[in-house]
Amino acid sequence: MFRTILRTFSTRKYNKVGLIGVPFEKGQQKKGVALGPKVIRDAGLIKELEVLGLDVKDYGDIVYKTVGTGDVNNMTHLKDVAACTKLLSEQIQKILIDDRCVLTLGGDHSVSVGTIDGHVQVMEDVAVLWIDAHADLNTNKTSESGNVHGMPVALLTTELSDYWPHLPGMDWQKPMLSIRNVAYIGLRSVDRYERLVIEKFGIPAFGMEDVERFGIHNTISMALDKIDPNGVKSLHVSFDIDSLDPLEAPSTGTAVRGGLSLREAIHIMEEVHRTRRLNAIDLVEVNPHIGDQRDVKLTVEAAIYIIQAALGYTRRGLKVPKGVTDMPLQTFK
């Protein structure tokens, strides 16, 4: 029933946002990324969004309890990932059913297993823009680190479901997203197996070389045309802050030089907002334990600018609210 209702999302009110924090860092090994939601909130995110005329409801943070699950070779902290993402998926579904666009603050990128699962459960026909320096397409058999934040796309997609062993605690998560509904932008650090998967399935993957060749406007247009050619799917943007060049966002765990500029990232989000089909945003991998105070400030500011652009901020200035009369030109003299 909910799918039937929410698949008519073209009639939704686009000024309603549901914010959820996921202070989770066990999908990788560097301490501090769990503080991402707090530092972004503390920097005034909600106030900045309310300036845009948005109705923002903060649903708080995910607090989970682990259950006794077995280990899987080369997957660190699987029971924590399983418990956190299960609860997160349920919360995402509630926020969407509340008729709000979901904004999720991570945490490491493993949290997107929960956000995208919840989105697909409700909306069903979902297209994903994965904005990242990395493809996150490894399985436990191909990963060099065993870090689950490098595996979420492989966990979510139907075409790769047979490449996994039984994952204790993850029985709730059944891959329902086709890998052909995922497009990458910003890639510049892709493992050999990941490249093989991208080529085998023809996944639209726009690395930094492509961004330089085509320009960011053409890149985002081509990506959307590939994963949503008819312009009818519910859109999910999973934005890893390490997609930005480290000069723009130094406080992140797996920084790679030569990334997107903040201006390019903002343009991506502006274009996605203009589709009127954006229903979920993940902003992940902000780690305030990395770098000095200036580095953290730069990174958090970049995160907020990206979120604002996704939710309606325009660099041309905000529209005059309804009911406000035009100012006389002499006001500006």
Record the SSE blueprint.
Elements: H1 2-6, E1 16-22, H2 36-42, H3 45-51, E2 55-61, H4 78-97, E3 101-106, H5 112-123, E4 126-131, H6 152-156, E5 182-187, H7 192-201, E6 205-207, H8 208-214, H9 216-227, E7 234-240, H10 262-274, E8 278-284, H11 293-310
Parallel strand pairs: 1-2, 1-3, 3-8, 4-5, 4-7, 5-6, 7-8
Helix pairs in contact: 4-5, 8-9, 9-10, 10-11
Can you tell me about this structure?
By secondary structure, the chain is of the alpha/beta class. Helices cover 35% and strands 15% of the residues. It contains eleven helices and eight strands. It has helices spanning 2-6, 36-42, 45-51, 78-97, 112-123, 152-156, 192-201, 208-214, 216-227, 262-274, 293-310, and strands at 16-22, 55-61, 101-106, 126-131, 182-187, 205-207, 234-240, 278-284. It has an eight-stranded parallel beta sheet, with helices on both faces. Helix 7 (192-201) links the parallel strand 5 (182-187) and strand 6. Helix 4 packs parallel to helix 5 (112-123). Mean pLDDT is 92; it is low at 1-11. This is Arginase. InterPro entries: Arginase, Ureohydrolase, Ureohydrolase_dom_sf, Ureohydrolase_Mn_BS. Its cofactor is Mn(2+).
